[in-house]
Automatic annotation (TrEMBL):
UniProt modified residues of type 4-aspartylphosphate: 55
Keywords: Hydrolase, Phosphoprotein
GO terms, biological process: phosphorelay signal transduction system
Classification via Pfam families: HD_5, Response_reg
Keyword Hydrolase annotated: yes
Domain HD-GYP: 154-352
Organism annotation: Sulfurimonas denitrificans (strain ATCC 33889 / DSM 1251) (Thiomicrospira denitrificans (strain ATCC 33889 / DSM 1251))
CDD domains, sorted: HDc
Descriptive protein name: Response regulator receiver (CheY-like) modulated metal dependent phosphohydrolase
Lineage: Bacteria, Pseudomonadati, Campylobacterota, Epsilonproteobacteria, Campylobacterales
Length: 367
């Protein structure tokens, strides 16, 4: 039922009776009477008033004091207040305190009724709008949370696909999947240390596993050769950078693919320009590739492979220091070495599981 609740506040019983008379033929009218401001405040706690009709001159608590209190209270401040008084000189003071309208006594009951009903409609509309906004806010929060979950799942899926593609390329030359995970986390950490924002860190984390994706296009005879590659074989081996770049080209709409394409193509470029495939020099080499170059060499030197044992940490760092300004970006290399303990924590978190004997047996069986 669409009830209208009006609180009439006046110390004169006749005036309250007159107000009641004004609404005699109004359906669903709930008229609450109060004889002073304090009485009205007490009754407000138990009703949902749509309009307050307020006299100003009353004992105990006058209309000014009550008006000031309710307009400062967030629970009641939006209830329209119509001042009903014989003293028109007090109108401005009441309006300054927040009154919404003013009627002079003796009051015209028809005008009183119409103004009250109009303010009732206004108040109900405001309440309905606030409730709608609250519901919309809740819905927005709910939908935003759902979008965050969906985005997180999409990002995790991207990372998983990137990891597995990288692992596919590494398994071809008997590397382990942990190498890929170490490269991923090493790269993100070095990116962070270099001052990258979270989005760039995420791109490095997700795209660096694609650095050797081009190995998929290299013949087994070269990838699985036990001895040193001859010049012709090494020339063909170097083509994995070009192949990786081609495999991931035209990925501008997909930031991870685009970053992966840059890394796959440039991670064997050297700071002095002696690298391949493009002979890029210094900062011509994208920072993503400069970062992956450092961590890839570190992992290759410090990890056991089918063709070599792991170098001791001191020897690994010595070799990498020798490559400053020739192979590696010296600033990034210094950042890496200065924070070596953090990279060692990552290495210890992703230790290799030696699957190569099983893979070798499979390869030999089908040769």
């Amino acid at each position: 039922m669409n009830t209208i609740t009006v609180l009439a506040v006046d110390d004169e019983p006749f005036n309250l009776d007159l107000i009641e008379l004004a609404f005699m033929d109004t359906e669903n009218m709930n008229l609450i009477k109060a004889i002073n401001g304090q009485d009205a405040l007490d009754k407000l706690q138990h009703i949902n008033a749509n309009v307050i009709l307020l006299d100003l001159r009353m004992p105990v608590m006058d209309g000014f004091a009550m008006l000031e209190k309710i307009k400062k209270d967030p629970i009641y401040s939006k209830i329209p207040v119509i001042i009903v008084t014989a003293n028109s000189e007090e109108k401005n003071r009441a309006l300054a305190l927040g009154a919404n309208d003013f009627l002079a006594k003796p009051v015209d009951t028809v005008e009183l009724k119409l103004r009250t009903l109009n303010y009732t409609k206004l108040h109900k509309s405001q309440v309905a709008l606030e409730e709608l906004n609250k519901n919309l806010d809740k819905l927005v929060i709910q939908r935003t949370a759902q979008l965050h979950v969906a985005l997180k799942l999409a990002q995790e899926t991207e990372y998983e696909v990137s990891l597995r593609l990288g692992m596919a390329s590494e398994y071809r030359d008997l590397e382990t999947g942990m190498h890929i995970k170490r490269i991923s986390h090493y790269s993100a950490l070095l990116g962070k240390l270099s001052g990258m924002d979270e989005e760039q860190e995420r791109l490095l984390l997700y795209s660096s596993p694609l650095h050797d994706i081009g190995k998929i296009g290299i013949p087994d005879a070269i990838l699985l050769k036990h001895g040193k590659l001859d010049d012709k074989e090494f020339k063909l081996m170097k083509e994995h950078t070009t192949i990786g770049g081609l495999m991931l080209k035209d990925g501008e709409r997909y930031p991870i693919i685009k970053a992966g394409q840059i890394i796959a193509q440039q991670h064997h470029e050297k700071y002095d320009g002696s690298g391949y495939p493009l002979g890029l020099k210094g900062e011509e080499i994208h920072i993503y590739a400069r970062i992956v170059s450092i961590v890839d060499v570190f992992d290759a030197l410090s990890s056991k492979r089918i063709y070599k044992d792991a170098f001791p940490l001191e020897k690994t760092i010595e070799i990498m220091k020798d490559g400053a300004r020739t192979h590696f970006d010296p600033i990034l290399l210094n950042l890496f070495i200065d924070n070596l303990d953090k990279f060692l924590e990552i290495r210890d978190s992703f230790t290799d599981v030696d699957e190569t004997p099983h893979l070798i047996n499979l390869i030999e069986e089908y040769r």
